[in-house]
Design goal:
Strand order of the largest sheet of chain B: 6-7-8-3-9-10
Number of domains of chain A: 2
Largest interface: A-B, 20 and 32 residues
Helix content of chain B: 40-55%
Strand content of chain A: under 5%
Shape of chain A: globular
Number of strands of chain B: 13
CATH topology of the largest domain in chain A: MetI-like fold
Order of helices and strands of chain B: HEHEEHEEHEHHHEHEHEEHHHHEHEEH
Order of helices and strands of chain A: HHHHHHHHHHHHHHHHHHHHHHHHHHHHH
Largest sheet of chain B: 6 strands, mixed
Distance between the termini of chain A: 16 Å
Oligomer: heterodimer
Number of strands of chain A: 0
Radius of gyration of chain A: 27 Å
Structural class of chain B: alpha/beta
Largest sheet of chain A: none
Distance between the termini of chain B: 28 Å
CATH superfamily of the largest domain in chain A: MetI-like
């Protein structure tokens, strides 16, 4: 039994939820227009509120106690030292020269060979060659050292994440109670936008390698735990029961049956963990992560498109390499091991590759051309200049499609929605959103929205939060439109799906950060640019979820509709979409969370709102409190949106009206 | 005549049962324990579910499995047969009752004792094989030896022996997914035989196989049973399979035992309409032995010179009898127990045809 909401007390004609929602929206827009400019709580960037002031003082006192408080001396500082030391070891091997040295332990040729060998050993020579080519291409872009730093940071974070996440994931897979215990944490981790971890961690662990590695771990561990637990939980019951019937101990069962059977999915989890870590390491440049993130941020700050494109391209190449290599390892793990001649050939191949790798490493230690990436192979500046030229050409020749589109959209859509959300009295907005939340998600969600949004007001960042919310809602609406159109097409036609697949894969592989560069180049610094980034980032996920949902509609249901003479449109609107409603709602939820994560990063490209405050707080000490408070406000906003969407999805399952 | 068989089985049970089950219950649901011994225990399944939210999968079941016999548990899906067989080795923990094996109550055995029994005395074959997909055939078969700490050479040697025994020669280095369903189940059989167990439990082992393969595998089990003389508890929902393989058959319905008996008992003396309905399509000539059909020779009859064995199934003796103008003698252990003539056979077949047409 669901708890009765106030909807149940209304007369029958009003009970249809959609009509109630429309009425609330209309009343809200009318009131907001009438009360425009009243009590908007707008605040200039440089002004602190009592709460942000309190956060600033808190930050100052944390900084002051770093060398005094016991929790720092016995907990945080040792953790920092350990993690920093761990990552530095990897860096010193491939990225930075040790003291008194000119090159790292292994020069570029050695690294390329070593990566090739590792990929070959874990999959096949084709992927190995591809990986070596992609790495060399990063060198040719002129960002070899930054690439190695990013690679070292990613590897360090991944190894530490796996060391923690695999045992936890396995335990969560075996033990229901432990799973129930950690599930809320995993759920929360999924909705936290990446940007909000950074400031608090930098405060505790200092700006630098340790803080950025820990932030990366916090981001990637839940992903790995989730997939590992799922891998164990979804195993076929038959072999496990058979093994039990033969008298296996629990340890034997885990070692000889469950882990080997779950291996493929667990390696898939490592693939996801690696890509998540890479995308985060790039963003973590904000709190001092060395590597490719730095030139991207610099390029974004001074609007240097050429440099940004070069660094962004290197990130993309690295992402493709890590993805291909780990995906190939997943496939390799499912293949039947070679035997006979094939096994001998494989062994000879491995031995030869090992010898070549050792040779290359030796060479890279004694020959300058093999140690430092040769200058004459670098073509990064040409690419940078070409990107600049292309950008100029597009913006001057296709003005209507770039700046013009931006301006029209901003005036006719963005400003109007923002007027309702941000330029109206704060209490009107809160009440309106809470009522909608109650209608969609039930009374509890309504009250939760009321409380959390009031919290945003108390923090003092209401207006900025509404600016961010505007962008999130508009971007989510566009994402859903794209998601339904492409998702239905892909779900209905394997051809469309095949055509879309590379884009969907790329969208899920690429770190959100690198979208900012071309979008900034085309549309200039603006709120619109942030929305475009959000749309690009979130669409692939939503398309995929919707396509899965449409494909999951039972075939006989569709056949029955077709055989009774439905047109294609009728099949889509009356059968496939209603039957995959759950996927649509799930897609909307995912889309919104993804959009939020990117829109706040849009603070870099002039999107304003909470994201901008977080970023400013990072660079201006007097605004640090405001940055932390903005992070908190983002979390509150994220929880409200997630709860409304989740509760809406659940209620829809219960009462299919 | 059939009474003799029933008494025979009674005698076997008391003297050397391999497994004795007494008052076994399995109730799924919360607070299942409180149901045993309460009045609710006698409610029908839907009533019990309605009243307590519990499902009684196995209800107060008692039987004995004789050493060396193939004991078939037969029932439709949901009758509790799979739960029952899992309760015997505690893959599912029974709610109440006793299961004796070599005088020891398995249900009170400690975890480690239970593990030891599973490693050395029992083995099981599953409907969906339950093979380890990441191991080659030989390593699947050697698995039970491996977990029992048998060294690599010894367990491979034993694995090769059973590979040959079940006709898997040449497949030792294949992975399960490379084999057909029938071959996979041969691996399952080999794995169950590897530890040379006292009792084998086979849970619908051939239900997932195509009919022709199923027949091959049934013959394989018959052959293995003849060669190795293992005690087998065989679960099936297929009456023909039960008749073909079972020395004795227990028919289950809604967790209760409806009837225990030899194939002949079930066909000739069904205890109720449920069993009769099951067995009516089974031609009597396919289950009755000549011994069961034999009658005393009438004074005016000349008995044919060449007698048949009392254990021979009627169907197989038909050509002999029909080709002989005189009734044929039936002998058991050298002594003549009676005769069977053309008319007797014709009456039996006419009975079968009658029941066939009434369906």
């Amino acid at each position: 039994m669901s708890t009765p909401t106030f909807v149940d007390t209304l007369p029958h004609w009003l009970r249809k939820r959609s009509s109630v929602i429309v009425i609330v929206l209309v009343v809200w827009v009318i009131l907001a227009t009438l009360l425009r400019g009243v009590d908007t709580l707008e605040l200039s960037t440089a002004t602190n509120t009592p709460v942000t002031e309190w956060f600033r003082e808190l930050a100052a006192s944390i900084r002051g106690s770093r060398s005094e408080a016991w929790i720092f001396i016995f907990v945080f500082n040792p953790i920092r030292a350990f993690i920093q030391g761990f990552v530095e070891v990897i860096r010193s091997v491939i990225a930075v020269p040790g003291s008194g040295d000119v090159i790292p332990v292994i020069g570029w040729l050695g690294v390329v060979a070593l990566v090739g060998f590792i990929v070959y050993a874990s999959s096949n020579w084709r992927t190995a060659l591809l990986s070596m080519g992609l790495l060399t291409a990063c060198g040719m872009l002129g960002v070899w050292i930054d690439t190695m730093d990013t690679l070292a940071m990613t590897m360090g974070s991944v190894l530490l994440s796996l060391a923690i996440a695999l045992p936890i994931g396995i335990w969560a897979g075996l033990n229901d109670r432990f799973m129930a215990f950690i599930r809320p944490v995993l759920d929360l981790a999924q909705i936290l936008p990446t940007l909000v971890y950074l400031a608090p961690l930098a405060l505790v662990f200092l700006v630098g390698i340790a803080a950025s590695t820990i932030a990366t771990m916090i981001y990637s561990i839940p992903i790995c735990v989730r997939i590992t637990a799922h891998a164990i939980r979804s195993l076929k019951a038959g072999p496990i029961e058979a093994s039990e019937s033969m008298g296996s101990t629990r340890l034997q069962m885990l070692r000889k049956v469950q882990l080997p059977m779950a291996r493929r999915t667990i390696i898939l989890g490592i693939n996801q963990t690696t890509l998540a870590a890479l995308s985060f390491v790039v963003i973590a440049a904000l709190i001092g992560a060395p590597g490719l993130g730095k030139p991207v941020i610099e390029a974004l700050t001074i609007r240097n498109v050429g440099n940004g494109v070069v660094a962004g391209l290197a990130v993309v190449l690295l992402a493709v390499m890590l993805d291909r290599a780990t995906t190939a390892a997943v496939q390799h793990s499912a293949e039947i091991p070679p035997e006979g001649d094939a096994l001998i050939r494989r062994r000879i191949g491995l031995a030869a590759a090992a010898a070549a790798t050792i040779g290359a490493i030796a060479l890279s230690r004694y020959q300058l051309w093999a140690a430092v990436f040769p200058e004459r192979l670098v073509i990064g500046s040409y690419i940078g200049n070409a990107a600049d030229a292309v950008t100029d050409w597009i913006t001057s020749n296709f003005y209507a499609l770039t700046i013009g589109l931006n301006q029209n959209f901003t005036i006719h859509v963005l400003n109007r929605v923002e007027a309702v959300l941000a330029d109206a009295p704060w209490y009107l907005t809160i009440i309106a959103i809470s009522i909608l939340a109650a209608i969609i998600g039930g009374r509890f969600v309504g009250v939760l929205s009321l409380v959390l949004l009031t919290g945003v007001v108390l923090i003092g960042l209401w207006n900025d939060a509404m600016v961010t919310l505007t962008q999130v809602l508009i971007a989510t609406a566009i994402v859903m439109l794209i998601g339904v159109l492409l998702g239905v097409a892909a779900g209905r036609s394997p051809r469309v799906e095949r055509a879309l697949k590379p884009f969907l894969d790329a969208g899920q592989t690429l770190p959100a950060f690198v979208y900012l560069v071309p979008v900034l180049a085309l549309f200039g610094p603006s709120r619109f640019a942030a929305i475009v980034c959000g749309v690009f980032y979130a669409s692939p996920v939503v398309v995929r979820v919707v396509a899965d949902g449409v494909r999951g509609v039972p075939k006989d249901m569709v056949e029955a509709a077709v055989s009774s003479g439905s047109s294609t449109t009728q099949v889509v609107t009356k059968v496939q979409l209603p039957a995959s409603k759950k996927s649509l709602l799930l897609g909307a939820n995912q889309g919104m969370i993804f959009v939020l994560a990117v829109v706040v990063i849009g603070g870099f490209v002039g999107a304003g709102g909470l994201g901008y405050l977080v970023i400013v707080g990072q660079s201006k000490p007097e605004l640090q409190g405001k940055g932390l408070a903005a992070g908190l406000a983002i979390v509150l906003l994220g929880i409200v949106m997630d709860r409304i969407a989740q509760a809406g999805a659940r209620r829809n399952e219960k009462q299919p009206t | 005549m059939t009474a003799v068989t029933a008494i025979d089985s009674q005698v076997q049970v008391d003297t050397d049962a391999a497994i004795s089950v007494r008052g076994l219950w399995k109730v799924f649901g919360e607070d299942a324990n409180s149901i045993i011994g309460s009045p609710e225990a006698h409610l029908s399944r839907p009533e019990l579910l309605e009243k307590t939210g519990c499902v009684a999968a196995v209800r107060d079941v008692s039987f004995d499995v004789a050493k060396g016999e193939v004991f078939v548990v037969m029932g439709l899906s949901g009758s509790g047969k799979s739960t029952l067989v899992r309760c015997l080795t505690r893959l599912i923990e029974p709610t109440a009752g006793e299961v004796f094996f070599e005088g020891e109550d398995i249900l009170t055995a400690s975890k480690s004792r239970l593990r030891e029994l599973r490693r050395t005395k029992f083995s099981m074959v599953f409907q969906h094989f339950g093979l380890l997909p990441h191991r080659r055939v030989i390593d699947n078969i050697a698995y039970p030896l491996e977990i029992n700490g048998v060294g690599k050479d010894a367990r491979y040697q034993r694995a090769r022996e059973v590979i040959e025994l079940v006709g898997l020669d040449g497949y030792a280095n294949h992975f399960p997914e490379q084999l057909s369903g029938g071959m996979q189940q041969r691996v399952g059989l080999a794995r169950a035989l590897a530890v040379n167990p006292e009792v084998m439990f086979l849970d619908e082992p051939f239900s997932a196989l195509d009919p022709l393969i199923r027949r091959d595998m049934q013959n394989e089990v018959k052959r293995l049973h003849k060669d190795l003389n293992k005690t087998m508890v065989f679960i099936t929902h297929d009456l023909a399979e039960a008749m073909k393989l079972g020395d004795r058959i227990v028919i289950m319905r809604d967790g209760d035992i409806v009837q225990v008996g030899t194939p002949v008992d079930l066909v000739m003396k069904p205890v109720d309409d449920y069993v009769a309905d099951f067995t009516k399509d089974i031609p009597k000539s396919h289950v009755l032995t000549m011994g069961a059909l034999a009658r005393a020779a009438r004074a005016d009859e000349t008995v044919s010179a060449d007698p048949v064995d009392a254990d021979l199934i009627v169907r197989k003796a038909i050509p002999r009898i029909v080709n002989s103008t005189n009734p044929v003698g039936v002998v058991k252990g050298g002594a003549t127990v009676g005769v069977v003539g053309r008319d007797d056979i014709l009456h039996l077949i006419a009975d079968d045809a009658d029941e066939g047409s009434s369906t």
